[in-house]
Amino acid sequence: MLRLGHRPAHDRRISTHLCLTARAFGADRIVFPSVDSSLEATVDDIRERFGGGFSLEEDPEWRPLIREHEGPSIHLTMYGQRHTDALAEIDAGDGMLVIVGAEKVPADVYDLATHNVAVGNQPHSEIAALSTTLLDVLGPDELYAERADAEIVIEPSDRGKDVREVDRGG
Ligand code: SAM
Fold this sequence. Notes:
Elements: E1 2-3, H1 8-24, E2 29-32, H2 37-50, E3 55-58, H3 62-67, E4 73-82, H4 83-86, E5 97-100, H5 109-112, E6 115-118, H6 126-138, H7 141-144, E7 152-155, E8 162-165
Parallel strand pairs: 1-5, 2-3, 4-5, 4-6
Antiparallel strand pairs: 7-8
Helix pairs in contact: 1-2, 1-6
């Protein structure tokens, strides 16, 4: 996915949650035009303990990134098409790129993206819009998928905490 408009002082907490949400709901990477080192530290720490291959990447050339993306590019915006209509056409196997803003996104994003998709036409949050989109397209299994090289595995439980620590032999 691509995160536009991150402002280090203002958006650090929400961008951190966006990274963790993207990872937990099945995205394999998140790209920022400029990476904030404190986000990197949090993502590294979660990946180290909970496993998986999620990456945080920097690419200032985000317009070519969208333009040259081979699968669908889905810009999430309250002005877009209903997600129930738009996402029904998307096949997860096509390698989608999901784009979210923080502040107002540059106007050309609406043209660069192959789809402008709304999760409702009310303003809310990029985290809610992203999680709904990933859940719709990828389904719920991603949320419970085993992550390679995890040190900590949480077993679903209806009471208490069932946490397994994995001996990685190191
Ligand atoms: N004032 C900003 C604007 O006019 O674009 C609102 C930004 S909103 C806090 C941050 C991001 O959340 C948006 O760029 C968009 O990606 C996402 N978002 C917010 N509401 C949404 C909705 N109803 N559907 C889809 N995405 C939404």
